[in-house]
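[audit] Reproducing an earlier prediction to check determinism. Same input, same settings, fresh worker. If the tokens differ from the archived copy the diff job will pick it up downstream; this log only records the rerun itself.
[audit] input (174 residues):
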Amino acid sequence: MGEKVVIPAQIKRVRDPDGKETLKATVPANVMFERSFDAKWLEEELVKFERRYFYLITCLKSLLESLRSKLLRDRRVLLYWEFGNKIVNFIEQNRISSLSMETLTQSLVRDVGASDKIITRCKRFRQVYPDVSNIDPHRSFDNYVAAFEGGYISDKKRDVKEKDQQATRPVHSP
């Protein structure tokens, strides 16, 4: 199994022998029935994959904590870009690996605690603006999202806008 083979991998929650819940990289069982199956090679690849994924989770959790902090208002857009950058770098590292992540966004939602929307938007933000020097740190993330989603309005702003529109509508009597 030394030739270039791409195997779909997943990160699953499992219990270790002590009953503690942990994350573990897994591959489909049919991989073991391949004629050229090499258990040692697969175990080494799974360990490398897990290390990359655990590093990604650690970085994203730290960035998410900073994003949720009220202290870092200025230059916050750069944190969103870095969040997306970590995800894009992980994807690119896995392109040259033998294991590829099947459900990355779903796994990150579960393991980082961010919504699928923010994960997808940060990844897209980084893909649309690959060079961080092109990011204006004084422009809001919502403003950038609106540019690449074509008119995005955050839920909070949409609610305010709808209430304003309802308040200014004339009341018609039947």
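[audit] rerun output stored. Observation attached for the diff report: The two ends are 77 Å apart (CA to CA).
[audit] end
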